[in-house]
Amino acid sequence: MKNNLLTREQRLIRIRNYIDRMPSLSTTVTKVLAVCNQPDTSPRDLNQVISLDPVLTGQVLKLVNSAFYSLPNKITTLTRAIIMLGLNTVKNLVLSTAILGAVTKQGPAPGLAMDLFWTHSISVGVIARALAAARGVPVTMREESFIGGLLHDLGKVVLTSCFPAEYQQALESTRSRFDILPAAETAILGLDHGLAGKMVAEKWQLSSTMTDTLGYHHDPGKAEEKNRELVAIVALANAYANIFDFGTAGDPYQDYDQLTRLLDLTGFQWADLSFLLETVEDEIEKARVFLNVSSTTETQG
Hints:
With 301 residues, the protein is mainly alpha-helical. 68% of the residues lie in helices and 0% in strands.
Protein backbone atom coordinates (compact mmCIF):
# COMPACT_ATOMS: atom_id res chain seq x y z
CA MET A 1 0.00 0.00 0.00
CA LYS A 2 1.37 3.40 -0.89
CA ASN A 3 1.96 5.80 1.98
CA ASN A 4 -0.47 8.39 0.68
CA LEU A 5 -3.29 5.85 1.02
CA LEU A 6 -2.60 5.14 4.66
CA THR A 7 -5.15 6.18 7.25
CA ARG A 8 -4.08 8.05 10.37
CA GLU A 9 -4.50 4.89 12.43
CA GLN A 10 -2.32 2.93 10.01
CA ARG A 11 0.34 5.62 10.28
CA LEU A 12 0.21 5.42 14.08
CA ILE A 13 0.68 1.65 13.88
CA ARG A 14 3.72 2.11 11.64
CA ILE A 15 5.14 4.65 14.08
CA ARG A 16 4.55 2.33 17.05
CA ASN A 17 6.27 -0.52 15.21
CA TYR A 18 9.26 1.70 14.42
CA ILE A 19 9.52 2.88 18.02
CA ASP A 20 9.21 -0.70 19.29
CA ARG A 21 12.29 -1.58 17.23
CA MET A 22 14.31 1.28 18.71
CA PRO A 23 16.88 0.08 21.28
CA SER A 24 15.66 -0.12 24.84
CA LEU A 25 17.54 1.84 27.47
CA SER A 26 20.16 -0.30 29.16
CA THR A 27 19.50 -2.05 32.45
CA THR A 28 21.83 0.35 34.20
CA VAL A 29 20.04 3.43 32.83
CA THR A 30 16.68 1.96 33.84
CA LYS A 31 18.00 1.37 37.36
CA VAL A 32 19.37 4.94 37.50
CA LEU A 33 15.93 6.33 36.68
CA ALA A 34 14.30 4.06 39.26
CA VAL A 35 16.78 5.01 41.99
CA CYS A 36 16.44 8.72 41.26
CA ASN A 37 12.65 8.49 41.45
CA GLN A 38 12.90 7.41 45.08
CA PRO A 39 12.60 10.39 47.45
CA ASP A 40 15.31 9.21 49.86
CA THR A 41 18.00 8.41 47.29
CA SER A 42 21.52 9.38 48.33
CA PRO A 43 24.64 10.03 46.17
CA ARG A 44 25.95 6.69 47.48
CA ASP A 45 22.88 4.85 46.10
CA LEU A 46 23.32 6.38 42.65
CA ASN A 47 27.05 5.72 42.70
CA GLN A 48 26.43 2.03 43.41
CA VAL A 49 24.23 1.70 40.33
CA ILE A 50 26.32 3.66 37.83
CA SER A 51 29.66 2.25 38.98
CA LEU A 52 28.57 -1.24 37.88
CA ASP A 53 28.83 0.00 34.28
CA PRO A 54 32.41 1.13 33.54
CA VAL A 55 31.50 2.58 30.13
CA LEU A 56 28.74 4.70 31.61
CA THR A 57 30.98 5.74 34.49
CA GLY A 58 33.61 6.92 32.03
CA GLN A 59 31.02 8.85 30.02
CA VAL A 60 29.68 10.63 33.09
CA LEU A 61 33.19 11.60 34.23
CA LYS A 62 34.05 12.83 30.73
CA LEU A 63 30.95 15.05 30.66
CA VAL A 64 31.49 16.29 34.21
CA ASN A 65 35.07 17.29 33.37
CA SER A 66 34.17 18.90 30.04
CA ALA A 67 34.28 22.63 29.37
CA PHE A 68 30.47 22.61 29.41
CA TYR A 69 30.41 22.39 33.21
CA SER A 70 33.57 24.46 33.76
CA LEU A 71 34.26 22.98 37.18
CA PRO A 72 37.38 24.47 38.82
CA ASN A 73 39.06 21.11 39.54
CA LYS A 74 39.17 17.76 37.77
CA ILE A 75 36.67 15.24 39.14
CA THR A 76 38.14 11.75 39.34
CA THR A 77 35.44 9.79 41.15
CA LEU A 78 31.78 9.21 40.44
CA THR A 79 30.81 9.97 44.03
CA ARG A 80 32.48 13.37 43.80
CA ALA A 81 30.73 14.05 40.48
CA ILE A 82 27.34 13.30 42.03
CA ILE A 83 28.05 15.52 45.03
CA MET A 84 29.27 18.39 42.82
CA LEU A 85 26.47 18.30 40.24
CA GLY A 86 23.60 16.74 42.18
CA LEU A 87 21.53 13.61 41.64
CA ASN A 88 19.23 15.15 39.07
CA THR A 89 21.98 16.49 36.84
CA VAL A 90 23.88 13.19 36.84
CA LYS A 91 20.65 11.32 36.13
CA ASN A 92 20.07 13.60 33.14
CA LEU A 93 23.63 13.10 31.92
CA VAL A 94 23.09 9.34 31.96
CA LEU A 95 19.69 9.62 30.30
CA SER A 96 20.70 12.02 27.53
CA THR A 97 23.82 10.02 26.70
CA ALA A 98 21.78 6.82 26.43
CA ILE A 99 19.06 8.38 24.27
CA LEU A 100 21.44 10.16 21.92
CA GLY A 101 23.37 6.91 21.55
CA ALA A 102 20.18 4.98 20.78
CA VAL A 103 18.98 7.52 18.21
CA THR A 104 22.29 7.92 16.41
CA LYS A 105 22.57 4.12 16.13
CA GLN A 106 19.43 4.21 13.99
CA GLY A 107 21.53 5.87 11.28
CA PRO A 108 20.78 8.97 9.18
CA ALA A 109 17.18 10.19 9.08
CA PRO A 110 16.06 10.64 5.45
CA GLY A 111 15.48 14.27 4.51
CA LEU A 112 17.15 15.75 7.60
CA ALA A 113 20.74 17.02 7.49
CA MET A 114 21.77 15.38 10.74
CA ASP A 115 24.77 17.62 11.47
CA LEU A 116 22.51 20.67 11.27
CA PHE A 117 19.73 18.83 13.13
CA TRP A 118 21.99 18.07 16.10
CA THR A 119 23.45 21.59 16.01
CA HIS A 120 19.90 22.89 16.28
CA SER A 121 19.07 20.46 19.12
CA ILE A 122 22.18 21.38 21.10
CA SER A 123 21.49 25.07 20.50
CA VAL A 124 17.94 24.80 21.80
CA GLY A 125 19.25 23.03 24.89
CA VAL A 126 21.88 25.68 25.55
CA ILE A 127 19.46 28.57 24.93
CA ALA A 128 16.78 26.97 27.12
CA ARG A 129 19.33 26.55 29.91
CA ALA A 130 20.33 30.22 29.61
CA LEU A 131 16.69 31.34 29.62
CA ALA A 132 15.97 29.21 32.67
CA ALA A 133 18.92 30.76 34.47
CA ALA A 134 17.72 34.26 33.53
CA ARG A 135 14.29 33.44 35.00
CA GLY A 136 15.88 32.28 38.25
CA VAL A 137 14.84 28.67 37.73
CA PRO A 138 16.62 26.39 40.27
CA VAL A 139 19.85 24.85 38.99
CA THR A 140 18.43 21.32 38.90
CA MET A 141 15.59 22.42 36.65
CA ARG A 142 17.98 24.31 34.38
CA GLU A 143 19.51 20.97 33.51
CA GLU A 144 16.03 19.64 32.74
CA SER A 145 15.58 22.52 30.31
CA PHE A 146 18.89 21.69 28.61
CA ILE A 147 17.97 18.03 28.19
CA GLY A 148 14.47 18.97 27.05
CA GLY A 149 15.94 21.24 24.39
CA LEU A 150 18.44 18.61 23.33
CA LEU A 151 15.73 15.98 22.81
CA HIS A 152 12.71 18.09 21.81
CA ASP A 153 12.68 17.22 18.10
CA LEU A 154 13.16 13.43 18.29
CA GLY A 155 9.69 12.99 16.80
CA LYS A 156 10.99 14.34 13.48
CA VAL A 157 13.52 11.52 13.26
CA VAL A 158 10.68 9.04 13.72
CA LEU A 159 8.38 10.64 11.14
CA THR A 160 10.99 11.02 8.42
CA SER A 161 12.17 7.44 9.00
CA CYS A 162 8.62 6.03 8.78
CA PHE A 163 7.38 8.21 5.89
CA PRO A 164 10.46 9.55 4.05
CA ALA A 165 8.74 10.69 0.84
CA GLU A 166 5.81 12.37 2.58
CA TYR A 167 8.00 13.97 5.19
CA GLN A 168 10.10 15.43 2.40
CA GLN A 169 6.85 16.88 1.00
CA ALA A 170 6.14 18.46 4.38
CA LEU A 171 9.62 20.00 4.52
CA GLU A 172 9.28 21.34 0.97
CA SER A 173 5.79 22.68 1.72
CA THR A 174 7.18 24.55 4.70
CA ARG A 175 9.89 26.14 2.58
CA SER A 176 7.71 27.00 -0.42
CA ARG A 177 4.65 28.25 1.50
CA PHE A 178 6.50 29.87 4.44
CA ASP A 179 4.37 27.71 6.71
CA ILE A 180 5.22 26.29 10.10
CA LEU A 181 6.33 22.66 9.95
CA PRO A 182 3.78 21.11 12.38
CA ALA A 183 0.97 22.47 10.19
CA ALA A 184 2.55 20.98 7.06
CA GLU A 185 3.10 17.64 8.84
CA THR A 186 -0.52 17.53 9.94
CA ALA A 187 -1.80 18.46 6.47
CA ILE A 188 0.20 15.69 4.80
CA LEU A 189 0.48 12.98 7.48
CA GLY A 190 -2.49 13.69 9.72
CA LEU A 191 -0.20 14.08 12.75
CA ASP A 192 2.89 16.04 13.76
CA HIS A 193 6.31 15.37 15.25
CA GLY A 194 5.09 16.34 18.71
CA LEU A 195 2.86 13.28 18.83
CA ALA A 196 5.67 11.03 17.56
CA GLY A 197 8.05 12.52 20.13
CA LYS A 198 5.55 11.91 22.91
CA MET A 199 5.31 8.27 21.85
CA VAL A 200 9.12 7.94 22.00
CA ALA A 201 9.13 9.47 25.48
CA GLU A 202 6.49 6.99 26.62
CA LYS A 203 8.48 4.02 25.26
CA TRP A 204 11.49 5.07 27.32
CA GLN A 205 9.31 5.97 30.30
CA LEU A 206 10.75 9.47 30.50
CA SER A 207 9.50 11.89 33.15
CA SER A 208 6.28 13.80 32.59
CA THR A 209 8.41 16.93 32.10
CA MET A 210 10.36 15.37 29.24
CA THR A 211 7.24 13.76 27.78
CA ASP A 212 5.44 17.11 27.73
CA THR A 213 8.49 18.82 26.24
CA LEU A 214 8.75 16.36 23.36
CA GLY A 215 4.99 16.38 22.87
CA TYR A 216 3.99 20.02 23.31
CA HIS A 217 6.98 22.26 22.53
CA HIS A 218 4.86 23.83 19.78
CA ASP A 219 1.87 24.25 22.11
CA PRO A 220 2.96 24.49 25.76
CA GLY A 221 -0.59 25.28 26.83
CA LYS A 222 -1.35 21.56 26.47
CA ALA A 223 1.38 20.56 28.93
CA GLU A 224 0.57 19.71 32.53
CA GLU A 225 0.50 22.91 34.57
CA LYS A 226 3.51 21.83 36.64
CA ASN A 227 5.57 21.40 33.45
CA ARG A 228 4.25 24.36 31.47
CA GLU A 229 6.94 26.89 32.35
CA LEU A 230 9.77 24.57 31.35
CA VAL A 231 8.03 23.49 28.16
CA ALA A 232 7.43 27.15 27.29
CA ILE A 233 11.10 27.96 27.90
CA VAL A 234 12.16 25.16 25.53
CA ALA A 235 9.58 26.36 23.00
CA LEU A 236 10.92 29.92 23.18
CA ALA A 237 14.47 28.62 22.83
CA ASN A 238 13.39 26.63 19.77
CA ALA A 239 11.85 29.72 18.16
CA TYR A 240 14.96 31.77 18.94
CA ALA A 241 17.29 29.12 17.48
CA ASN A 242 15.18 28.96 14.32
CA ILE A 243 15.01 32.73 13.88
CA PHE A 244 18.78 33.13 14.28
CA ASP A 245 19.70 29.98 12.31
CA PHE A 246 21.41 27.99 15.02
CA GLY A 247 21.45 24.80 12.96
CA THR A 248 18.19 23.72 11.39
CA ALA A 249 15.61 21.00 11.88
CA GLY A 250 13.40 21.89 8.94
CA ASP A 251 11.13 24.55 10.42
CA PRO A 252 12.58 28.02 9.74
CA TYR A 253 9.26 29.86 9.89
CA GLN A 254 7.56 30.81 13.14
CA ASP A 255 4.01 31.29 14.28
CA TYR A 256 4.40 34.85 15.60
CA ASP A 257 1.11 34.74 17.51
CA GLN A 258 2.49 31.69 19.29
CA LEU A 259 5.78 33.50 19.88
CA THR A 260 3.86 36.29 21.64
CA ARG A 261 2.15 33.70 23.84
CA LEU A 262 5.52 32.12 24.66
CA LEU A 263 6.91 35.48 25.76
CA ASP A 264 3.84 35.93 27.97
CA LEU A 265 4.18 32.44 29.45
CA THR A 266 7.87 32.86 30.23
CA GLY A 267 7.71 36.49 31.36
CA PHE A 268 10.25 37.74 28.82
CA GLN A 269 10.14 40.67 26.43
CA TRP A 270 11.82 40.00 23.07
CA ALA A 271 14.39 42.71 23.85
CA ASP A 272 15.32 40.79 27.02
CA LEU A 273 16.77 38.03 24.87
CA SER A 274 19.52 40.13 23.30
CA PHE A 275 22.04 38.75 25.79
CA LEU A 276 21.77 35.32 24.19
CA LEU A 277 23.62 36.24 21.00
CA GLU A 278 26.64 37.26 23.05
CA THR A 279 26.79 34.12 25.16
CA VAL A 280 25.34 31.03 23.56
CA GLU A 281 27.74 30.38 20.67
CA ASP A 282 30.62 29.40 22.95
CA GLU A 283 28.27 27.30 25.07
CA ILE A 284 26.97 25.50 21.99
CA GLU A 285 30.48 24.45 21.04
CA LYS A 286 31.11 23.21 24.58
CA ALA A 287 27.85 21.23 24.57
CA ARG A 288 28.90 19.23 21.52
CA VAL A 289 30.66 16.99 24.01
CA PHE A 290 27.27 15.32 24.57
CA LEU A 291 27.27 14.06 20.97
CA ASN A 292 30.88 12.95 21.19
CA VAL A 293 30.29 11.02 24.40
CA SER A 294 27.02 9.46 23.24
CA SER A 295 28.75 8.02 20.17
CA THR A 296 30.60 5.67 22.53
CA THR A 297 27.39 4.39 24.14
CA GLU A 298 27.08 0.63 24.28
CA THR A 299 23.46 -0.44 24.63
CA GLN A 300 23.00 -3.28 27.06
CA GLY A 301 20.00 -5.54 27.42
